[in-house]
Design goal:
about 250 residues; alpha/beta; Spore Coat Polysaccharide Biosynthesis Protein SpsA, Chain A; 2 domains; nine-stranded mixed sheet; globular
């Protein structure tokens, strides 16, 4: 029987990590890599696994996933975020898939924002590669919006069943996550893109129109409008923060 490790990287996930851990209890190994939690995350994780590791620094999402994978002992890896939950149907699909030959598998993530499922707005379907053989590949080095490296000759296959995702429970949660994302994005794109309020405004307007109109965000009713407005604002702030970083760099 082929073994599988479910891998979770986390920091301060006490509000949601228990659902993730419960949904992975069937796995041969649950591995948690913590990057400095100050809440009850570790206390909760210890109820489900002894395989808990700690990172003193934060290298970015891509490299942190690489670091966690290196600690795994199983043939197969399923990368699970701390705010996600494996559905029963997806669990059965995973268990069936790992008995076949080496391949890379995508799962369909269904997200919830501010208490409501989001089935449009460019959020669903949301196919992401999460199941793969340990020795075949790894994640790239990107700080944010990291992705699995797909080796030549491999075409990802789709698994049945949703991966449930709890994104933002309230505005405080949203802005805490977005502040980290904006900082990582502007750092990652420091040498690649131009910053500034005008380009941010133009890109923000397009982001709103794309999400709310072309990606049918209006069908998600109030939460669709809320997400589109937040996308507009966050897009502006990304480019403003990039401009600030470039200005500070020249000043120093």
């Amino acid at each position: 029987m082929n073994k599988i490790s479910v891998v979770i990287i986390v920091k301060n996930g006490e509000d949601f990590i228990e659902k993730a851990l419960k949904s992975a209890e069937w796995a041969d190994e649950i591995l948690v890599l913590d990057s400095g939690s100050s809440d009850k995350t570790i206390e909760i994780a210890k109820k489900y696994t002894d395989n808990i590791h700690f990172s003193e620094t934060w290298p970015g999402f891509g490299k942190q996933r690489q670091n966690a994978q290196k600690l795994c002992s199983s043939r197969w890896i399923f990368m699970l975020d701390a705010d996600e939950e494996i559905s029963e149907e997806l669990k059965h699909s995973i268990k069936k898939a790992i008995e076949d030959d080496d391949s890379i598998y995508m799962v369909n993530r269904l997200s919830k924002a501010f208490g409501q499922q989001v089935k449009h707005s460019g959020w669903y379907p949301d196919w992401i590669c999460r199941l793969y053989p340990n020795k075949l590949t790894r994640y790239n080095d990107v700080l944010v919006h990291e992705s699995l490296v797909i080796p030549d000759g491999f075409k990802p296959k789709k698994l049945k069943g949703n991966l449930y995702h709890e994104t933002y429970k309230d505005m405080k949660d949203y802005y805490q996550k977005m502040s980290m994302y904006i900082d990582a994005w502007s750092t990652q794109n420091f040498q690649k893109k131009r910053g500034g309020s005008l380009i941010g405004l133009l890109r923000g307007l397009w982001a709103f129109v794309k999400m709310y109109i072309f990606q049918l965000g209006f069908l998600d009713r109030s939460v669709g409008l809320t997400l589109a407005l937040l996308r507009f604002e966050t897009t502006i702030m990304k480019y403003v923060d990039l401009k600030i970083k470039k200005t500070n760099s020249k000043a120093s």
